Amino acid sequence: MKRMDILKGLIAVCAFFGALSVAYAESNDYLVPDWQYQANDYINKVDVADLNGDGVAEIIASSRDGMVYDLEAKKSGHVNWQAIVGGNIKDFKILDYDKDGKKEVLAGSDKTDVPVRLLDWQGLNKGSTIDFEQRVYAIDAADVDGDGVNDIIIGGADHNVYVLKSKEMPPLWQYESKGAVQYVKAADIDADSRTEIIGVSTWKMNEDDLAEVYALDNNGKLRWSYDIPGGIFSTSSGPAVVSDINGDGKKEILIGGKKGLTALDSAGSVLWNFPTEKQVNVVYVPESGNGIYVGATPYVYSLDGAGNLVWKYPVNTTVFCLTAADINSDGTEEILVGALKYIHVLSKDSTPIVSWFYNDVNAASNLAGKNFETHSIAVGDVNGDGVKEVVAGFGWTEGKGGQNTATGLVEIFKVNAGAVTTQATTTTPVEQSREPTTTQAATTKPVVTQKPTTTQPKNIEGTMSTEAEIQPPASGVNNIMLLAVIVLGGLGLLVIIAVVIIFLFLRKKKSSEKKEKPSLKEAREKAS
What we know:
Layout: H1 3-27, E1 31-39, E2 43-49, E3 58-63, E4 67-72, E5 78-84, E6 89-95, E7 104-109, E8 116-119, E9 136-142, E10 151-156, E11 160-164, E12 173-176, E13 180-187, E14 196-205, E15 208-216, E16 222-229, E17 240-243, E18 252-257, E19 260-264, E20 270-275, E21 282-284, E22 292-296, E23 299-303, E24 309-314, E25 319-325, E26 334-339, E27 342-346, E28 352-357, E29 373-380, E30 389-400, E31 403-415, E32 449-450, H2 460-466, H3 477-527
Helix pairs in contact: 1-3
């Protein structure tokens, strides 16, 4: 084989590795960090809303050290205002509370000194301070008594659910539960045009974690309750969901526990149970009510309204939040999973689109090497360009000067829908059984504690053991592959340079030899 042919072959091989390196680097550009804002403690929750009325949504974030931030994406994270509420702000709601046409932020914290704040678009207290002195774990607002005015619903650390009439005290009513109230939600669950309150409380008994979910009528009277053995995992998105998951016009209650997900009807009867390998961390139902998504390490599960498994996707780390939105403008919603060290983006059929993690080529430098937790994800057009951005709230703890220091971060990502994805594999959805999978209680008496049923949907056990799964690379595998490809590409370029140098050297040497031969001949002739 001629030297030129060898050279061409080497150049072709090196060019292949170089192109592969570039292609893989582009595959990590689906979620492109745009800008970030660093806080002094964990970010518990993020949301997007236009508070100042300029037609472009701002980013509202709350932190574990009692701060509420209003950030403006048009100015790359400019802080419009920050309000010191104090304590740990576990929950906030954005709504037009006083129906004046402007949205407010209703925040609750776990401190006893003014734990409930209603903030206007400038971050100032709206009217007089709410006179309430109990630690707040959960908060909501709705017209509970039907007088046309929003009331404030509070879940307290003191085991009570409170309904405040505007900002007045004493409360309109309060209900004492068995433990600290981790979740409250106001909704008309039985389509009777009256608002009910769904609450979730937790407590310990003989070192065992226990919890219950219950429904209260609009006068604070207990309608039913259901015990959750093993307790719950409380996240910023809440341990429960209230939604019409089966299209019957009434709302069902989904509650995640240590042994799986339970669906209750509006009367507190068990519709079905779905078992998970480990405790359920988060439950999410899109506003459309189409689909149920469950985060329970090591999987994210997709269920239909009857509790049948559609698919499950292994994430291998703790899941803190779930949301769904059409982030790439393809007309269908994507599933965004906030987890330890990761943000996963999946299609509705579980096809993985991207797994963004801290040491991607475009990752924020101050996340590198951190065991960050993705506590909250929101989606919206926050810079007025007509394209949706992804907003994520992170938190992590690291040792500094012999002490553990907590840090929070709000990160904004642009979506590059044209980027090559890191995981191009697809999955075959689970074929759903046509057999009934519900466990319907025959009768339900008012104010009767429903004991958890042990009957499971007939098709679940078999389905879970037979469905196709997508196995994403474990933490660090993508990095190793990327590094290997880049190294190979770099070595290829070095080989090209070395081969070219050797080729030129040999060519020059050969040319010199040709010139040298006549000279030697002449010398011999003269010698003879």
